[in-house]
Amino acid sequence: MTAKPDITGLEDIKLLVDAFYTSVQKDELLSPIFLSRLHDHWGPHLEKMYTFWNAALFGVKGYTGNPFAKHATMAVDAEHFERWLTLFLGTIDAHFDGPVAEDAKKRALIMATNFERRIDGLKGTDKVTLV
To answer: pTM value?
Structure first.
């Protein structure tokens, strides 16, 4: 069995992001959420995700935006975050192994946990916290 490589740069991030969103588009639970927001704008979203993960994992400048603000108004709950995390971690495990891959998994867990907690806290209110 051949050892899997670690995530080493932008080309690996593109592989990760593309493979992950391919599985999202096929997923019964997540695809309707993403399709309702992205319609036929997947290209710009993927580009933004490449720059996001490149910044998160390697400190490469280029990402701008507020990820939570984009998600705060979505009709998602714990089940959606659990599925997102399962698909994301599974995609990493299918393609990569190493310290950066482990870091990506930790960051994804933190992000999913925080987003879920914050979105849950907004339910039943008429406010949206953007920061």
So the answer is: 0.88
